[in-house]
């Protein structure tokens, strides 16, 4: 009956060690195949079987997670459609990334209760259960509505509203050119539209940027501690975790290298990555170095670089500093309890405007300053932590990406010399996608705009 | 005392643009049809601007033609000039507009009606409908004649409780001092119809001999032959120009000084006027920063000196109108032949209609045109045609024809009216059509001729010509897809000459035509078709290939929409029993009673969750019915 394929995380968020993403619809298996890497092709496997493999991001080609995939073919499934269930390691990042990969590969994000709805429409569940489905849809939309109201007051909706307003003014102008060709309004030029679209694109990118920040907020700031062996990384971590007893969760990565620990530093959730790596390697002094850090760095939002106060800068130190050039970082010069051998002026000249903190973790000196520096970075930096309603959910990110794509298409249309009334179609799409983010309706406000902006008549 | 005067299949009340199309369609579909009008001298009368077409409206005229209606043919025979508008833009928004000879237009339409077999014309005023058990069975006139019929189409224009307002003068009247229809308005209310009061207006008319066109900018027609109808073969090339002039600060000052005498501001007018057609006093108040407004001077016909003053619609007192006119460049000595006025009238709330234009309240009764809250001759004619078709089909026991939003502007128009209603006189705009790219001026025949033929309004011979055209288009597109040109010196030379880059490898003609510098003409120079093709075919080939990417995108959107459109809402659905939908949605759904989930989803206030719940409710019921 339904012809599109839907996907959603079907286990409660942030709970349990495993999360399941469910995909249902005629293309469920084909879509899963696009992002699944394993010994078999999912389209070839028998129904109701489980397969080990990896999820690969369709755009970057990176491995997103290690997973178990269950393939179930219609009709013996919950929805009576082809269903694929992907069991991910519970951490929010891989789960979201897997869902994102599915959405990029042709699945649509399921509406609240939609799996159950399909199950019902396809005759899988009976009449009495249908009532429950209705309650479910209603409850979830109420929740969504509540969230929408929160967002209505938030910065996101203000920004989107402003953006939509810019777009609708342009749309109205184009519409007037078309509907009232003899009216003495200036003809909108392609140069103007191009300029406008580039501005809009920038705005959307900025919003998508906040999407990343929104995610940071919910999932913790991915933090990596790096430094040569024996500079005190392990002690720093222990101090952070012990000082701030608020360990949020501890997910043992059974097959992965990176173990995460959550700490709460002055209200900012930090997710410390590669804690296991640091713990292990501190014992085996020689075996580490830049290579290993590099892996953890790939995911880092914040880097804590530890240098040794009691030794001159080494080439490894300099290499690390260069590697961290574009990262948000705090540089910690540890072991001030020991005689100074490091050239702090050189360090300063190398690290640019990153905060530099001197500590003696052993003697618990400088920890306050370190926490202060971390907090300052985020409170005073680009991120506004007080606003909890930043673009943070996958649906919004998805819609913003679609809006972005539409604006891109306007630009390529202009480049290909298409008439403006034609590329306008993509601009209108962008406007509608943005409207969906904040739940604003469409059509009529364009007409309103036309008549308030221009003086028309016979 | 009443007497039985006759029995017909279909009775049409009103012979304006809606009524004429309705009556002709019904008669041509084989129904014995009676057309009753207040005055046989005002058939197809244009009480306001003397023009037909323009963006969206011109598209409707083409659609009417493709479905076998009359408006396109009639204007092709009676215009004084035609212009293709928007030619600097994309083909989706090209729009043809004609200036009409109003008087000729009326005469021509009257002749067509008089000569139509199955159609009788009668001058009278209908005062009541004969309604039994919720079904309309005929009409009763002021003279006591009872006419019976199986269906009735009501096209009352602005006559229902019409009231003309000029300054502080106001009196009951139809447009241009025609007699208004008062009793019928009260009768409709008695029947239970919910009515609204709308307002529209018209500018003064002036004598051509009293104005100085040398001070204005000339607006000639196109010098290439143009026609609305796909059937027209004779073109009028002897055209009259229009003229452009402007208001100025003096004009605005006089209006400002007399605003207290304008009924818009003194409170005499209660009806809601259209925003897209404001009076000059309204423009000056709302857009006070504009120091001039355009004024077009348009002939009302070839055999008259009367000129229409487009842009100066007003209900200011007569003395102010004259003063205002005479401030305008070229009109300093203008003689005002008719005074501008505002007119208020009753319309029915159009959400009381099914998409077939049959009323929900009274079966077998259809309404079309301004009574449904629209404005514009074209909007009226489009509805009239559909109401006539569906009234005839009802007589014949057939399902109604409902155009969807991806098929025709007429579909957009009717769907908007019956689904969303309207808070002001409704005018079509291209921006109301989400599939504008598919609803082009050039392809109305490709969109609708099949349907027109199926309905029985397109004669066999015309249909055969159409099919041949369609095949020629398909064949030539195929050829362009399958033919590659190699980078030979000759080809490169042609490309260079056209200012486009040379090709490196063999390229399909179909992709070459997508370059902005190239069109079908250029492609045919590089690789001529095996047999010559007509300009209409060439135009289609070019548009369909050049804009293929956009057309595909639009088609995908249509595909999505169609799925929801196909999900019918069964008659047994009782919205008061659908648990879980919001109360606003419930109220709106009960009022509109949409025929499909697609239509339901377009009602404002009905959100996706409501649609989901409704879908489940329907499925639940269907299952229960199957079991029971």
Short description:
With 458 residues, chain A is of the alpha/beta class. Chain A is built from 15 helices and 14 strands.
Strand order of the largest sheet of chain A: 3-4-5-6-2-1-7
User: Largest inter-chain interface?
Assistant: A-B, 49 and 61 residues
Structural class of chain B: alpha+beta
Average of the residue pLDDT scores of chain B: 94
- Give the helix/strand class of chain A: alpha/beta
What is the H/E order of chain A?
EEHEEEEHEHHHHEHEEEHHEHEHEHHHH
Low-pLDDT segments, ≥5 res of chain A: 140-149, 244-258, 276-289, 381-392
Specify the CATH architecture of the largest domain in chain A. Answer: 3-Layer(aba) Sandwich
How many helices of chain B in DSSP terms? 21
Q: Which architecture of the largest domain in chain B would the CATH scheme give at its second level?
A: 3-Layer(bba) Sandwich
Q: Classify the helix fraction of chain B into a percent range.
A: 25-40%
How much strand content do the residues of chain B show? 15-25%
Organism (chain A): Thermoflavimicrobium dichotomicum
Domain TrmE-type G (chain A): 220-379
Protein name (chain A): tRNA modification GTPase MnmE
GO molecular function, one term (chain A): metal ion binding
């Amino acid at each position: 009956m339904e012809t599109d394929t839907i996907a959603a995380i079907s286990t409660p968020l942030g709970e349990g060690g495993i999360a399941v993403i469910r995909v249902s619809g005629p293309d469920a298996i084909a879509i899963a195949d696009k992002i699944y890497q394993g010994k078999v092709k999912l389209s070839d496997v028998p129904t109701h079987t489980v397969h080990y493999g990896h999820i690969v991001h369709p755009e970057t080609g990176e491995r997103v997670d290690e997973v178990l995939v269950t393939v179930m073919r219609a009709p013996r499934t919950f929805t009576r459609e082809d269903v694929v269930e992907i069991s991910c390691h519970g951490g929010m990042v891989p789960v979201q990334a897997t869902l994102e990969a599915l959405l990029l590969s042709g699945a649509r994000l399921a509406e609240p209760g939609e799996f159950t709805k399909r199950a019902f429409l396809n005759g899988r569940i009976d009449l009495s259960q249908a009532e429950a489905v209705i309650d479910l849809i209603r409850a979830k939309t109420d929740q969504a509505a509540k969230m929408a109201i929160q967002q209505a007051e938030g910065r996101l909706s203000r920004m989107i509203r402003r953006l939509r307003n810019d777009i609708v003014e342009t749309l109205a102008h184009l519409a007037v050119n078309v509907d009232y060709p003899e009216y003495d309004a200036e003809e909108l030029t392609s140069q103007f539209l191009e300029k406008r679209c580039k501005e809009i694109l920038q705005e959307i990118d900025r919003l998508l940027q906040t999407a990343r920040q929104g995610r940071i907020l919910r999932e913790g700031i991915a933090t990596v501690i790096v430094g040569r062996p024996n500079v005190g990384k392990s002690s720093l971590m222990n101090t952070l975790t012990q000082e701030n007893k608020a360990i949020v969760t501890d997910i043992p990565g059974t097959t992965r290298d990176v173990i995460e620990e959550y700490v709460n530093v002055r209200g900012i959730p930090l997710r410390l990555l590669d804690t296991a790596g640091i713990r292990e390697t501190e014992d085996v002094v020689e075996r580490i170095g830049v290579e290993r850090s590099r892996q953890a760095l790939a995911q880092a939002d914040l880097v804590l670089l530890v240098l040794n106060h009691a030794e001159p800068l080494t080439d490894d130190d300099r290499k690390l500093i260069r590697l961290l050039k574009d990262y948000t970082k705090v540089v910690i010069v540890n072991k001030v309890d020991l005689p100074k051998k490091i050239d702090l002026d050189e360090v300063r000249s190398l690290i640019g405007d990153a905060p530099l903190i001197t500590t003696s973790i052993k003697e618990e000196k400088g920890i306050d300053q370190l926490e202060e520096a971390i907090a300052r970075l985020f409170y005073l930096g680009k991120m506004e932590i007080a606003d909890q309603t930043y673009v943070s959910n996958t649906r919004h990110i998805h819609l913003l990406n679609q809006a972005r794509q539409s604006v891109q298409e306007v630009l390529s249309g202009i480049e290909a010399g298409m008439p403006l009334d034609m590329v306008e179609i993509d601009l209108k799409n962008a406007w509608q996608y943005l409207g969906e983010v904040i739940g604003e309706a469409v059509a009529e406000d364009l007409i309103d705009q036309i008549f308030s902006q221009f003086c028309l008549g016979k | 005392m009443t007497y039985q005067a006759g029995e017909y299949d279909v009775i049409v009340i009103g012979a304006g643009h809606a009524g004429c199309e309705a009556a002709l369609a019904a008669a041509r579909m084989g129904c014995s049809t009676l057309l009753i009008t207040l005055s046989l001298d005002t058939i197809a009368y244009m009480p306001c601007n003397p023009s037909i077409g323009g963006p969206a409206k011109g598209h409707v005229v083409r659609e009417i033609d493709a479905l076998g209606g009359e408006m396109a043919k009639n204007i092709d025979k009676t215009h004084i000039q035609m212009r293709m508008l928007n030619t600097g833009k994309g083909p989706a928004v090209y729009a043809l507009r004609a200036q009409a000879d109003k008087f000729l237009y009326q005469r021509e339409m009257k002749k067509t009606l008089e000569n139509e077999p199955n159609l009788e014309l009668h001058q009278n005023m209908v005062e009541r409908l004969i309604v039994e058990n919720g079904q309309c069975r005929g009409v009763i006139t002021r003279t006591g004649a009872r006419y019976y019929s199986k269906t009735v189409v009501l096209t009352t224009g602005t006559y229902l409780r019409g009231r003309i307002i000029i300054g502080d003068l106001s009196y009951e009247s139809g447009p241009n001092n025609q007699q208004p229809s008062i009793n019928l308005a009260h009768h409709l209310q008695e029947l239970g119809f919910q009515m609204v009061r709308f307002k529209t207006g018209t500018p003064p008319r002036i004598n051509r001999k009293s104005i100085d066109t040398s001070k204005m900018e000339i607006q000639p027609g196109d010098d290439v032959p143009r026609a609305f109808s796909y059937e027209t073969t004779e073109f009028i090339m002897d055209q009259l120009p229009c003229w452009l002039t402007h208001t100025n600060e003096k004009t605005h000052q006089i209006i400002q000084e007399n605003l207290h005498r304008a009924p818009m501001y003194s409170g005499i007018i209660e009806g809601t006027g259209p925003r897209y057609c404001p009076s000059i006093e309204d423009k000056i108040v709302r857009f006070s920063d504009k120091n001039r407004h355009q004024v077009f001077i348009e002939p009302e016909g070839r055999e008259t000196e009367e000129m229409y003053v487009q842009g100066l619609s007003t209900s200011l007192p007569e003395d102010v109108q004259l003063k205002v006119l005479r401030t305008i460049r070229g009109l300093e000595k203008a003689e005002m032949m008719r005074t501008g006025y505002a007119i208020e009238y009753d319309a029915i709330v159009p959400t009381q209609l099914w998409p077939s234009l049959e009323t929900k309240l009274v079966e077998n009764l259809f309404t079309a045109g301004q009574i449904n809250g629209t404005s514009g001759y074209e909007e009226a004619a489009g509805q009239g045609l559909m109401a006539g078709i569906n009234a005839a089909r009802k007589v014949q026991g057939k399902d109604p024809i409902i155009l969807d939003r991806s098929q025709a502007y007429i579909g957009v128009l009717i769907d908007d009216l019956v689904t969303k209603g309207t808070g002001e006189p409704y005018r079509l705009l291209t921006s109301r059509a989400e599939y504008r790219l598919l609803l082009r001026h050039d392809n109305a025949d490709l969109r609708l001729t099949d349907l027109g033929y199926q309905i029985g309004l397109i004669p066999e011979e015309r249909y055969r010509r159409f099919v041949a055209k369609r095949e020629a288009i398909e064949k030539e597109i195929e050829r362009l897809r399958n033919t590659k040109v190699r980078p030979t010196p000759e080809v490169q030379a042609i490309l260079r000459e056209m200012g486009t880059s040379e090709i490196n490898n063999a390229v399909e003609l179909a992709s070459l035509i997508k370059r902005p510098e190239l069109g079908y003409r250029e492609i045919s120079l590089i690789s001529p078709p095996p047999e010559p093709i007509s300009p209409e075919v060439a135009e289609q080939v070019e548009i369909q290939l050049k804009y293929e990417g956009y057309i595909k995108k639009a088609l995908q959107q249509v595909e999505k929409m169609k799925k929801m459109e196909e999900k019918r809402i069964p008659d047994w659905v009782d919205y008061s029993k659908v648990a879980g939908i919001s109360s606003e949605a419930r109220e709106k759904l009960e009022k509109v009673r949409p025929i499909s989930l697609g239509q339901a989803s377009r009602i404002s206030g009905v959100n996706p969750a409501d649609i989901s719940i409704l879908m489940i409710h329907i499925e639940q019921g269907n299952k229960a019915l199957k079991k029971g």
